[in-house]
Amino acid sequence: MKIGIIIHSQTGNTLSVANQIKERLSAAGYSVELEQVTAVDEKQPDPSKIKLKTVPETAGYDYLIFGAPVHGASLSPVMKAYLFQVQSLKGKKAICFMTEFFPYPWMGGNRAVGQMKAACSSKGACVVSAGIVNWSNRKRAGMIQAIVEKAAEETGRDA
Ligand SMILES: Cc1cc2nc3c(=O)[nH]c(=O)nc-3n(C[C@H](O)[C@H](O)[C@H](O)COP(=O)(O)O)c2cc1C
Q1: Do residues 46 and 132 touch, judged by C-beta distance below 8 A?
Q2: What is the CATH number of domain 2-156?
Q3: Would you say 56 and 37 are in contact if contact means Cβ atoms under 8 Å apart?
Q4: In a mutational test of the pocket of ligand 1, which residue from 9, 11, 38 has the highest number of ligand atoms less than 8 Å from its CB?
Q5: CA quadruple 48, 54, 99, 4: dihedral positive or negative?
Q6: What is the pLDDT of residue 145?
Q7: Residue 134: CB within 6 Å of ligand 1?
Q8: If 0-12 CB within 10 Å is exposed, 13-18 middle and 19+ buried, where does residue 159 land?
Q9: Ligand 1: which residue has its CA nearest to atom 19?
Q10: Whose CA is nearest to atom 5 of ligand 1?
Q11: What letters, b where the CB count within 10 A reaches 16 and e where it falls short, cover 120-130?
């Protein structure tokens, strides 16, 4: 099974979680690629005006893990723009995760992860799990660990 981890990360937090997921799933024996979505102007707040610079292909993956930061209590505009234009995800399973600064998921993260799940579902993916890492929460390491282990458990069902 080929797993693609496709993320947007502006300051490295989401990337660090993605690297831990990659390590864990690679150790479990899967073929895992980590790819980043980037934009010409990372600070453009309007997804419809964003020009994407790197646009990962999803076709070669059986399983997708999407990660992004919360921006303004929403899914980051760059990830919104990416998921809007991405090809069909029909027949693929997906896991979504977000990172946010605030300590609790109801401070924007829940809304943002809901947007990400809806965007994936609208492209035909079956979203099997979703998680949020609250970066300023003292239990951050445990939250990251929970997402990593959940990814291993879910992908393990299809091994
Ligand atoms: C433009 C912008 C808006 C943000 N808005 C929020 C927000 O609404 N709520 C929140 O908890 N964190 C917010 N953050 C913080 C990021 O979500 C958080 O630091 C995240 O972990 C960054 O991930 P990254 O390092 O992968 O880019 C914002 C950051 C930026 C740059």
Answers
A1: no
A2: 3.40.50.360
A3: yes
A4: 11
A5: positive
A6: 98
A7: no
A8: exposed
A9: 101
A10: 71
A11: beebebebbbb
The answer to whether 93 and 128 are in contact (CB under 8 A) is: yes
- Ordered DSSP codes for 56-121: ---TT-SEEEEEEEEETTEE-HHHHHHHHHPPP-TT-EEEEEEEESSSSTTTTHHHHHHHHHHHHH
Residue nearest to atom 31 of ligand 1 (CA): 71
CA end-to-end span of the chain? 7
Q: Among candidates 47, 17, 10, which has minimal Cα distance to 132?
A: 17
Q: Which atom of ligand 1 is nearest to the CA of 133?
A: 21
Task: Evaluate: CB of 99 within 6 angstroms of ligand 1.
Answer: yes
pLDDT along the chain (159 residues), means of 10: 97 98 97 98 96 97 97 97 97 97 92 98 98 97 98 91
